[in-house]
Amino acid sequence: MTIKTLTGKVLVTVRDYDATLWGIGDALVAECGPPDNTKAVRALIAECAQELADHGCEIDRQQLARFHKVAQSFPKSARRPTLSWAVHAAAGSPDMLDAIVRGAHKPITAKYARLVVRGWREENKRTQI
Questions:
Q1: How confident is the model at residue 2, as a pLDDT?
Q2: I want to staple 110 with a disulfide (CB 3.0 to 4.6 A). Which of 12, 53, 90, 127 is the partner?
Q3: Are 89 and 66 in contact (CB under 8 A)?
Q4: pLDDT tens by residue, 56-110
């Protein structure tokens, strides 16, 4: 086996994994509505986590809430298929993701996106003082 073959298989699997994360989030949006942080939505997410656990699928409610929020924040039309789900999650919004992409001087990873978002927040705090 060559690394090229391994990389191809791994890449396909990781892309399938990203599609699964989007699918979970989209299903949660369809089942629970938008993530408005109300008790009702939090209760639905907790109920979903319990039902999944009852079927042998242990995903904690915080992770389900994250999938839900990211899927709602990035409708299908705003998703960039060349970037991972984790990059979208780190960016937090389509506008921030667009800014990250426009200013990128290196490959965009979730770590890079988090650094850009953190820098933007710190700069925003300084200018508001």
A1: 55
A2: 90
A3: yes
A4: 999 999 999 999 999 999 999 999 999 999 999 999 999 999 999 999 888 899 9
For residues 45 and 28, is the Cβ–Cβ distance under 8 A? yes
**Other C-beta atoms lying within 10 Å of the C-beta of residue 116:** 19
Q: Which of 77, 62, 63, 75 is nearest to 29 (CA)?
A: 75
Domain locations along the chain: 1-73, 75-129
Can you read off the two tokens belonging to residue 104? 């990128």
Query: HEC string of the chain?
Result: CCHHHHHHHHHHHHHHHHHHHHHHHHHHHHHHCCCCCCHHHHHHHHHHHHHHHHCCCCCCHHHHHHHHHHHHHCCHHHCCCCCCHHHHHHHCCHHHHHHHHHHCCCCCCHHHHHHHHHHHHHHHHHHHC
